[in-house]
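Please check our next protein.
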Amino acid sequence: MLATLDAHLLNLNDRQHLRGWQRFALEFLYFGIKEARACLFVALFFAAVVLVPRAGLLGVPRYDLLLLIALAIQGWMVWAGLETWDELKAVCLFHLVGFGLEVFKVSGAIQSWSYPDFAYTKLFGVPLFSGFMYAAVGSYVIQAWRLFDLRIRHHPPYWMAVLIALLIYANFFTHHYIGDYRWYLAACALGLYARTTVLFRPLDRERRMPLLLAFVLIGFFIWLAENISTFWGVWRYPNQLGAWSVVHVSKWSSWSLLVVMTFTIVAHLKHVKARIHVPE
């Protein structure tokens, strides 16, 4: 069924007869369908986050069950041809990058947040399923790239993109010791990607938008997902231990910067690189 849907979404016929509000409505509809399809892993994983009881099921703790579900979803997507092995490698890299950050953030010296429930699959206080929250972002970018037939114009030189991505990741660690430089890094990213546009195809015509806007929008929706996760007690920030409160809006900027890093990793997939224009 999904293969049939993907084939339809990737081979939309020319609709030259569409004009005005009819074209807008149909393009908006297909944009929503493609976005929903690109969020397949995200939707299934976060449905599990919401639906699995805090006490677990059949004697299996919640965090362990979420790990099993995430592995099953990922395995199914590869088996069904919805992700390639190369794309799976990129997703695994997101998992490792995210898990490393989680270990640091929950450590006794930092305690930015915590995972309060018991699990057999906890390492250094972090349940192994947590890396899939970061992998979900990578999975979305990979799926959206294919479904929207994305092309990137005026991408900065790769070494510059990699450097800013590494500095963004490093700042998540170092800001606890030498100050938070996220806004300086954001300014650098703004200058680096100022001319970069993403060309995408919701229906039969190519549309474009600034890549920076895409980073900010994706970061916003991750921030919303984080609010849902903390509300259901998957993890908690120190100010949420007594009673739940909205995650501070400053986290939106952190997630947007993480999307920059995620995009950089995806951009190095061979079949994706062919669709990126780097000016000489």
